[in-house]
Amino acid sequence: MKIVYLGTPDFAVEPLKRIIESGKHEVLAVVTNRDKPVGRKRVLTAPPVKAFALEKNIPVYQYDRIRLEGVEDMKALNPDVMITCAFGQILSKEILDIPKFGVINIHASLLPKYRGASPIHYAILNGEKQTGISVMKTDIGIDTGDVILQKALNINDGETCGQLFERLSILGADCIIEALSQIENKTATFIKQDDALATFTKIIKKEDAIIDWHDSAENVYNKIRAFNPAPIAFTTLNGLPFKIYEAEVTCDVGEAGKIIKCDNQLVIGCGTGAISLKTVQKAGGNAMKIADFLRGNKFTVGEDFV
To answer: How far apart are CA 129 and CA 68, in angstroms?
Structure first.
């Protein structure tokens, strides 16, 4: 089939790679968001999907809003199917109606649970033990279309969002190859979602990563995992941001936000339970394992994190 692929971040690269390597389909073009300034020096940087597409000599289209800027381009390409994967833009009905087989989306949750922008983050935030990939036919709602297939994936103990992203991207590649085969062979089934069971996720913002030490240790631990590698969970120490990359739940008991132990470990009390910090970064410093961090930074029991 002739395909137009719409995606932006690293998560979307592996499914595109697998489609190309299958040799069964022709990728007419890739559509992605515009290049953005990245880092402290604000270097203009291409989205990962664009960089990969250019390596494979695939034409790239970039829009701020495809529904306003890209309709005629998509009509001219005349694809059999369009595939979206972490694209980050809403498609109009006019675009949805262009491909013969419609628009197919690779979504990183077991729909209807965790519709929206941040399903992987929320699965970890909420302490889920399982998530997965849903391949669905896109309609004008947000992740409300009929599901073609789903595959589940267990979330490993201690797994971070970044680690789960990588595994789900690979699973997404497996799923889209299978779904395309079903669509092409006319064996695909389209199962309506139960909207009554739907949950929604919002775009993650930096302020969502602030740690509330009055929360349970388990919830604080899940937040630290969910926001690694970005935006990184953080608290305040001496009025300055203090990032926590890794931690674990302990059996210690103490007052919320106060240091319980600070010899060869740094244990902070929570609303219930406590957290032992494993990798941290203070303002102006680098991320460090806690043993290295404590060699150059002294604390006292009862000192406050906010």
So the answer is: 40
What are the pLDDT digits (tens) for 128-155?
A: 999 999 999 999 999 999 999 999 999 9
The 3 state secondary structure assigned to the chain is CEEEEEECCHHHHHHHHHHHHHCCCEEEEEEECCCEEECCCCEEECCHHHHHHHHCCCCEEECCCHHHHCHHHHHHHCCCEEEEECCCCCCCHHHHCCCCCCEEEEECCCCCCCEECCHHHHHHHCCCCEEEEEEEECCCCCCCCCEEEEEEEECCCCCCHHHHHHHHHHHHHHHHHHHHHHHHCCCCCCECCCHHHCCEECCCCHHHHECCCCCEHHHHHHHHHHCCCCCCCEEEECCEEEEEEEEEEECCCCCECEEEECCCCEEEECCECEEEEEEEEECCCCCEEHHHHHHHCCCCCCCECC
pLDDT at 198 over 90: yes
* Contact criterion met (CB below 8 Å) for 117 and 200: no
pTM > 0.70: yes or no: yes
Report which residue type is found at 141: G
Mean per-residue pLDDT, 198-213: 96
CB of 29 closer than 8 Å to CB of 187: no
- Taking Cα atoms as reference points, which of 133, 67, 98 lies closest to residue 4? 98
Residue 68 to residues 34, 91, 122: CA-CA distances in angstroms?
14, 9, 31
pLDDT tens-digit profile of 260-286? 999 889 999 999 999 999 999 999 889
